[in-house]
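Good morning,

Attaching, inline, the C-alpha cells for the sequence recovery test we're adding to the shared suite. The designed sequence is right after.
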C-alpha cells in the first residue's frame, strides 16, 4: 500500500441557502480516498459502515483503486450520519446533528498489507481511533497527515493532543486553529500548534484559501473563485486527499513540494464544491485537474517592479 486513510464513511444531510440534499454519501475518508486515488494505484481505507451503506459506492471506490479490506460492514447497524446547514456566505456552517452510530464500535484492526504503508492520512475521526491506527504501523511512516475538527476539541481534547504530537502535518480550519491554540492571531496560533509536535500546519480558510506554516516559513494559496458553489461539504477532506496523494506520488517532502501539494489540494477541493456530496469529485479526471492547476498558476501570476527610492 502506498497510502492508508482512516476516517468516516458516512451519510450526510446538507442544507445550503440554495438547496437541500436529504441523504447523500459523504464522510472524511470517502472524500480523501476519491481525491488521493487520482495519483495512486494502491491505497487502503480503514473505517466502518452499517449494512445500509450502498454497495455501488463501495464499488466506485474499488474501481478507483481503493482497497476496502480495512472497511468493516456491521450487519443490522446504521452508518455514521451528519447533518449540517450552511450560512449565506457558504464558508460557515452549523452542525445540526451527529449520529455516531457504527463509529462507536470502530476498533480498527489493520490488514497486514496496510501496516507498512509509508503514507498515513488520519482523517477527521475520534482521536482514540486515529491513535490506534498509528500504534499498528510496523515502522514509523514516512509521512503522517492528520485532520480533525472542533467536535473532537470539545469532547476529547487530551487524547487529541496526544495524537497531534505524533503527526508530521496537521490540517485544520482557522476557527479550529484559534480554538486549539487559544490565540486569535493565526501566526501566533501556528507557533503554539507547531510546539505541540507537528512540523507543519495547514490552516484551511474555505473560500479564502489555505496557509501553510513551517518552522520558519509561510505560504499562502488562494481558493479558485468559482461561479457557483453548490455544496462545500468535503472540500477540506478533498484538499487533504489531493495534498497527501500528491506527496505520496512524488515522495518529496521539501517546503517547495509542500507548496505544490497545497495547490493540488486546493484545485481538487474546488471540484467538490461544484455539486452535492461526492458527485463531482468521483467523476473528475487527471485532465480536469491539470487544467484547473493551470488556472491557479494564472490566478496568482504577476510581475512587479519595486519602485526605487
Ligand atoms: P469537511 O466539509 O471537509 O469538513 O468534511 C465534511 C464531512 O465530514 C462530511 O461528509 C461528514 O460526514 C464528516 N463529518 C462531520 N462531522 C464529523 C465528525 N464529528 N467526525 C468525523 N467526520 C465528520
Amino acid at each position: 500500500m502506498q497510502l492508508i486513510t482512516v476516517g468516516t464513511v458516512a451519510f450526510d444531510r446538507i442544507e445550503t441557502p440554495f438547496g437541500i440534499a436529504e441523504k447523500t454519501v459523504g464522510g472524511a475518508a470517502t472524500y480523501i480516498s476519491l481525491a488521493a486515488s487520482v495519483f495512486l494505484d494502491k491505497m487502503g481505507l480503514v473505517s466502518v459502515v452499517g449494512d445500509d451503506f450502498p454497495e455501488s459506492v463501495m464499488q466506485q471506490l474499488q474501481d478507483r483503486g481503493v482497497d476496502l479490506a480495512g472497511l468493516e460492514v456491521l450487519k443490522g447497524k446504521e452508518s455514521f450520519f451528519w447533518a449540517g446547514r450552511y450560512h449565506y456566505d457558504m464558508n460557515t456552517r452549523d452542525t445540526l446533528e451527529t449520529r455516531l452510530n457504527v463509529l462507536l464500535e470502530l476498533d480498527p484492526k489493520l490488514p497486514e498489507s496496510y501496516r507498512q504503508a509509508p503514507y498515513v492520512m488520519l482523517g477527521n475521526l475520534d482521536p482514540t481511533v486515529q491513535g490506534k491506527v498509528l500504534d499498528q504501523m510496523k515502522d514509523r511512516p514516512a509521512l503522517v497527515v492528520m485532520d480533525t475538527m472542533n467536535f473532537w476539541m470539545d469532547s476529547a481534547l487530551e487524547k487529541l493532543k496526544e495524537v497531534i504530537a505524533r503527526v508530521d502535518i496537521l490540517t485544520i480550519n482557522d476557527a479550529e486553529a484559534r480554538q486549539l491554540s487559544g490565540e486569535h492571531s493565526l501566526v501566533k496560533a501556528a507557533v503554539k500548534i507547531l510546539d505541540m509536535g507537528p512540523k507543519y500546519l495547514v490552516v484551511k480558510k474555505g473560500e479564502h484559501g489555505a496557509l501553510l506554516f513551517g518552522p520558519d516559513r509561510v505560504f499562502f494559496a488562494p481558493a479558485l473563485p468559482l461561479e457557483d458553489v453548490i455544496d462545500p461539504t468535503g472540500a477540506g477532506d478533498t484538499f487533504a486527499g489531493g495534498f497527501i496523494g500528491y506527496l505520496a506520488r512524488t515522495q518529496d517532502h521539501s517546503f517547495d513540494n509542500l507548496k505544490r501539494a497545497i495547490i493540488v489540494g486546493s484545485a481538487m477541493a474546488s471540484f467538490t464544491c461544484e455539486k452535492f456530496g461526492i458527485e463531482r469529485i468521483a467523476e473528475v479526471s487527471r485532465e480536469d485537474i491539470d487544467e484547473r492547476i493551470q488556472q491557479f498558476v494564472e490566478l496568482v501570476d504577476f510581475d512587479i517592479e519595486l519602485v526605487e527610492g
